[in-house]
Amino acid sequence: MNGNVLLRHRVRVSGSGSRALLFSHGLGFDQRAWRLVAPAFEATHRVVVFDHAGCSAAAAQSYDEARHGSLHGYAQDLLDICDALALERVSVVGHSVGGMIGLLASLAQPARFERLVLLTASPCYMNLGDYTGGFDRADLEAVLAMMERSMLGWAQFMAPMALNDPSRPELLSEVESSFAASDPYTTQRLARLVFLGDHRALMPQVSVPALLVQCAGDVVVPVPVGHWLHEHLAGSELALLDTAGHCPQLSQAPRTTALIAQYLGAA
What we know:
With 267 residues, this protein is α/β, with parallel strands linked by helices. It has a single domain (5-124, 199-265), classed as Alpha/Beta hydrolase fold, catalytic domain (Rossmann fold, 3-Layer(aba) Sandwich), CATH 3.40.50. Helix content is 42%, strand content 16%. It has 11 helices and 7 strands. The protein starts with a helix and ends with a helix. Residues 21-253 form the AB hydrolase-1 domain.
């Protein structure tokens, strides 16, 4: 792709230090999803936030039909950002599909990465055989069809499921607005990669240590997914938050920040 990768992904860098901490957001969000967590690490790390292709006001300029036809294209974007900033000793904090994108980047260049922190990430959302991903394929196809009919309808359906906490109306409004404002074309295509993809076979190849943060009340990525990942990612640690929802970086920002800091401090 042509153009400046830092402009294309609206990359913002803050903080200092020899270690880099790169935050990778999930479907329907952009870098603003990290505002309650990322600043806490500026004293110890070079903090990098960015927007995935198609996930910002510059959606059309950052998205390429062929490149972003798989999650590996998004992972290459992440690696290109690392190259542009000359980042080494990188740790990635990734939410949902942002975690899988960071994981795929670590498979491509394992020597570049120190740690992965995967917040409610999943290699496969479908129930397949004895694997519990959370959804039957027909349910996922129905969600994708809903997105094609109306992004607002999808947002109003998905946001309460993602938060799973009616006591936080301000967060519900924020998440719903973020989902509804997403670019329909690029978001729907990324959603198809996310919901119908299966990256389980790659998990035993991951060599970078990982912290898995799983929420007990997450109906999007249920607890069995966290346990499955823990069993198949060598050297991983599993932290179970006794909380609702799929977005701990928003709903449980202080606890999530503390978990990340503790894990990175032990590196």
